[in-house]
Amino acid sequence: MKGLAPLFLGIFGTFAFSWVGLTVIPNWQIGQLNPQSDEEGTDIYPMPQSGMVTRGARVYAANGCNYCHSQQVRAEYAGADIERKWGDRRSAPRDYIFERPVLLAKMRMGQELANIGARAPKEEESPSPTGGASPAPQAAAASPGTVASAKAASPSPATSPSPATAPAMSPGAIASKPPTSPGPASPPPSKSPAAAAAAAGTPGGSPSPSAPWPEQTAGLPPMYSAAWHHVHLYSPRSVNLDSNMPSYRFLYRARRISAGRASDALQLTGSDAPPEGWEIVPTFDARCLVAYMMALNQSHPLKDVRSAGPAAAASPPTSPSPASGRQPAK
Question: 155: cis peptide before it, omega within 30°?
Answer without folding.
Answer: no
